[in-house]
Design brief:
alpha/beta; binds fe (ii) ion; 23% helix; 237 residues; 6-stranded mixed β-sheet
Length: 237
């Protein structure tokens, strides 16, 4: 995708992962899946690299935490990027399959991977892919929350398999601080090893894990413009 030198920082907040990625030459950064509590931290981090933060990209509409995108847009003039199928009203650029999100001499390539949510996408960059919750290390995002579809998730995992084995994966969640590649996941991840679509759909639809603790607040925050919602987490439903 790009041979340019790049800035890369993983930001961990409990089990949620965000990523700052930047063009080292032109000092322009993007942040992927920023979390509300750390909205100003990403800007500080970009400044640490003497860089400007151009885009905040959400890989999907999160149901378990509040995105920092609209706050970063409001406070820092960062442009928000999400897939065209999103319902979020504060998005500046709605991207589609194959679009390139350019920052300096670097670019993220959009791969639409519905299933966890209908607006889910993965972002391909050099030797790595940011998989959001489409593919986790040792698992994949659930498909029983709003916008989820087990059949679409199966097809999306097949799509990722077709990208080869060497890409390093950087997911939206990781509770074990592991590092992995698409090849590792094809070997070890049970969700990547199910050969039949029907079996996959059965697995994904027969289990009912508890809902994320803050699902109502998260979905309300992530689906409304900033004027309509002034509260953040910790202030109750
Ligand atoms: Fe998610």
């Amino acid at each position: 995708m790009s041979g340019a030198e790049f800035i890369f920082e993983q930001v961990r907040s409990a089990g949620c992962l965000s990523y700052l990625l930047g063009c080292a030459k032109e000092k322009i950064c993007v942040v992927i899946d920023p979390e509300l509590d750390k909205a100003d931290d990403y800007v500080s981090l970009a400044r640490f690299f003497q860089s400007k933060l151009l885009y905040a990209v959400d890989t999907h509409t999160h149901a378990d935490h509040s995105s920092a995108c609209k706050v970063m847009r409001e406070r820092h003039g960062v442009k928000v990027v999400m897939h065209a199928d999103t319902e979020a009203p504060y998005v500046d650029w709605r991207v589609n399959e194959g679009d390139c999100i350019e920052f300096g001499q670097c670019a993220l390539k959009v791969i639409h991977t519905p299933g966890h949510t209908h607006d889910a996408m993965c972002l391909l960059f050099n030797d790595r892919i940011f998989t959001g919750d489409t593919l986790l290390i040792g698992g994949c995002g659930r498909t029983d929350l709003p916008g989820g579809n087990a059949e679409a998730q199966y097809e999306s995992l097949l799509k990722l398999k077709s990208l080869g084995k060497d890409l390093r994966i950087y997911p939206g969640h990781d509770y074990r601080e592991a590092v992995s590649t698409l090849g590792d996941e094809q070997q070890k991840n049970p969700r990547m090893q199910i050969a039949s679509k029907e079996e996959f759909i059965h697995l994904m639809t027969s289990r009912k894990p508890p809902l994320p603790r803050k699902i109502q607040e998260a979905l309300e925050w992530n689906r409304t413009p900033i004027q309509g919602t002034q509260r953040g987490f910790g202030e109750g439903i």
